């Protein structure tokens, strides 16, 4: 009788253990799937930011190409007395615009160091996190929490140090 009760308890415990192992396996599968989805989303996010930066670069290259494009001379028949006052403001605006573009290009070259302290993912917030183990200082706090890999060297982030630059 006691032996039979023990066997029944053992069978019940074994079935409970099998159920728990099955449930644990299901949770593992769900966790692995969630990790895969997270990695896919992180890759999509990284690709989105890379595409955004490339489109910004291509946009500035197009502006340079347009400004550097050789212009064909235009033949205009003008009645000098009537047309000269209309051209002068246009010429002045064109000169001002050209000067603005030159100054903007000089500023962008001079600000190369200033942009080094901007988040390399969102390009908006200042850098605030030192990534470990690679020690790159390239992400803002929110992006450092969202990323699992360093955007510079692709090292897996094990920890973060949040810095407060003065």
Would you mind describing this structure in some detail?
This protein is mainly alpha-helical. The protein has 3 domains: 1-50; 80-110; 116-166, Herpes Virus-1, CATH 3.30.40. Helix content is 63%, strand content 7%. A 3-stranded antiparallel β-sheet has the order 2-1-3.
Tally of discrete structural domains: 3
Task: Give me the side-by-side strand order of the main sheet.
Answer: 2-1-3
The CATH topology of the largest domain: Herpes Virus-1
Strand portion, in percent?
5-15%
Mean pLDDT value: 81
Rough shape?
elongated
CATH architecture of the largest domain: 2-Layer Sandwich
Number of strands: 3
**Going by CATH, what is the homologous superfamily of the largest domain?**
Zinc/RING finger domain, C3HC4 (zinc finger)
Distance between the termini: 78 Å
Unreliable spans are none
Rg for CA atoms? 32 Å
CATH class group of the largest domain: Alpha Beta
The helical percent reads 55-70%
Describe the SSE topology:
Layout: H1 2-68, H2 80-110, E1 129-132, E2 137-139, H3 141-146, E3 159-162
Antiparallel strand pairs: 1-2, 1-3
Quick tags:
166 residues; mainly alpha; Herpes Virus-1; 3 domains; three-stranded antiparallel sheet; 3 helices; 3 strands; elongated; zinc-finger
Summarize the structure.
The protein is mostly helical and 166 residues long. The chain has three domains: 1-50; 80-110; 116-166, Herpes Virus-1 (2-Layer Sandwich), CATH 3.30.40. Helix content is 63%, strand content 7%.
């Amino acid at each position: 009788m006691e032996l039979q009760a023990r066997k029944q308890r053992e069978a019940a415990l074994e079935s409970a253990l099998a159920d728990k192992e099955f449930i644990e396996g299901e949770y593992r599968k769900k966790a692995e799937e969630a990790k895969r989805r997270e990695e896919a989303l992180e890759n999509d996010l990284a690709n989105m930011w890379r595409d955004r930066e490339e489109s910004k670069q291509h946009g500035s290259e197009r502006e340079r190409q347009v400004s550097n494009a050789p212009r064909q001379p235009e033949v205009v028949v003008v009645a000098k007395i009537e047309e000269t006052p209309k051209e002068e403001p246009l010429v002045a605006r064109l000169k001002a615009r050209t000067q603005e573009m030159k100054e903007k290009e000089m500023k962008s070259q001079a600000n190369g160091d200033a942009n080094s302290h901007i988040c390399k993912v969102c390009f908006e917030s200042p850098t605030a996190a030192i990534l470990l183990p690679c020690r790159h200082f390239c992400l803002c706090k929110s992006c450092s929490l969202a990323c699992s890999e360093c955007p510079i060297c692709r090292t897996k982030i094990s920890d973060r140090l949040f810095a407060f630059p003065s």
